[in-house]
Amino acid sequence: MPTEKKPRNQNLTVPNALSVFRIIIVPFFAWFFLKENLPLAAMLLALSGLSDLFDGMIARKFNQVTELGKMLDPFADKLTQGVVALCLAIRFPAICPILILFIFKELVMLCCAVVLLKKKKRPCAAMWYGKVATVMFYLSVSVIVIMDGFFQVRAQVFDAVAYVMLIVTAGMMLYSGFRYFQIFREIFHSDDEKYELDLPDEIRAKTVRESKREKK
Fold it and tell me: What is the mean predicted confidence (pLDDT) over 91-101?
């Protein structure tokens, strides 16, 4: 006889848990960074970067890709990058213009995703150029934190390395932002059913049925 189990939410996956973990890390990173506990701040940032690297690999390998995960992953990226940029701007005012560019780009992308969700359309999943920009961002921030907190390099060397790395990262983020905006326009104006998404229905738990055979 077919039996019905309790509803099981298809979004309860390891990759989604890792994305939530990255979101939870953010305030702790900000606290330690602003309290000048740079070793712990750097460790948390590295942990966040590793979880970002592995959640996509796990999702694809074990077929745990979900619509919620496609939104949680970039949201965790944007939140992390925005807070890290804000912390850096407070500690190193000289690099504020580049960091403001980072934050502006992420806010525009977030607004585009909200617009698509209101139209019941599926926002774009993370693409390779977005991931490359994220890795470059983590790398740049980590180098800046290490130079300032561990090696105490000369001011001229610090400024030169920080500016070069952040400018290159900014270029990659602008490129990824432009590519994402092209995809946003395509989805916004498209009537293709593949872009349709009802978020509340997607998040709702689904009942799993399982057949049992009687043993003789």
Answer: 70
| C-alpha span between 176 and 182 (Å, rounded) | 10
Residue 177 has pLDDT above 90, yes or no: no
Domains and CATH numbers, the chain: 2-199 (1.20.120.1760)
Cα 40 to Cα 20: distance, rounded to the nearest angstrom: 20
DSSP class per residue in the chain = -EEEPPPB-TT--HHHHHHHHHHHHHHHHHHHHHTT-HHHHHHHHHHHHHHHHHHHHHHHHTT---HHHHHHHHHHHHHHHHHHHHHHHHH-GGGHHHHHHHHHHHHHHHHHHHHHHHTTBPPPPP-HHHHHHHHHHHHHHHHHHHIIIII---HHHHHHHHHHHHHHHHHHHHHHHHHHHHHHHHHHH---GGGB--HHHHHS-BPPEEE-PPP-
Closest CA to 133 of 70, 71, 78: 78
| Tens-place pLDDT, residues 123-175 | 777 788 888 887 887 788 778 777 776 677 787 888 888 888 888 888 888 89
Q: How far apart are CA 165 and CA 168, in angstroms?
A: 5
Instruction: Give the tens place of pLDDT for each residue, 32-42.
Output: 988 888 888 88
**pTM of the full structure:** 0.64
The answer to whether the beta carbons of residues 130 and 169 sit under 8 Å apart is no
